[in-house]
Amino acid sequence: MVMVSTTAEITFDAPRGPLYQWLVPGVFLDQLDTVMKDEAGFAGITVTTGTTGPWDVPGSTRIVHQFDGTYSRETVMAANAPDYFDYRLTEFSSTMLRLLVREARGQWWFTDDGNGTHAKWTYSAEARSILTWPILLPVLKVFWNKSMRGTLKRIKARAEKEVT
Fold first, then answer.
1. For residues 114 and 106, what is the distance between their CA atoms, to the nearest angstrom?
2. Beta bridge partners of 69
């Protein structure tokens, strides 16, 4: 198992508990398309379908559809409000992703930062083999990280207007 990981961080001018409640069971549930846009060569999210439960309950699943017509299954692995959120992506419809990645994980940590909240988002992908790792490494570390940072900026802009 060869893992490739990348991390992006941001601080929100919003308190941790209300931010988590607004983001994880809110925006992440049914507004993902408002924050995950086309960026750095990655297709944004158009819609999620087939959600089996609340997005802050481990075991809940859904299908995440992207603008390029591809999709994947997303499963909540852990949701410990207001500190931590973990999800897994599998069943990639994209031929390229299926060739490169077995599964991917996204993990979010939320900590107090003065009157605000510091968020750390780590995204890890398990390479299909040692041969795919050299391709996956720059894709995640450079391009996906840029997409993650764009997503965090959009979340921040909304959160600082909507979270009280």
1. 25
2. none
Find residue 144's DSSP bridge partners.
none
Domains by residue range for the chain, with CATH: 2-162 (3.30.530.20)
User: CA angle at residue 103 from 126 to 118, to 5 degrees?
Assistant: 80
Span 11-34, pLDDT tens digits: 999 999 999 999 999 999 999 999
Rounded to two decimals, the pTM is 0.95
Q: How many residues does the chain have?
A: 164
Which alpha helices (H) appear in the chain, and where do they start and end?
16-22, 28-30, 95-100, 133-138, 145-162
Per DSSP, the three-state class of 125 is strand
Residue type, 52: T
Question: Residue 42 is which amino acid?
Answer: F
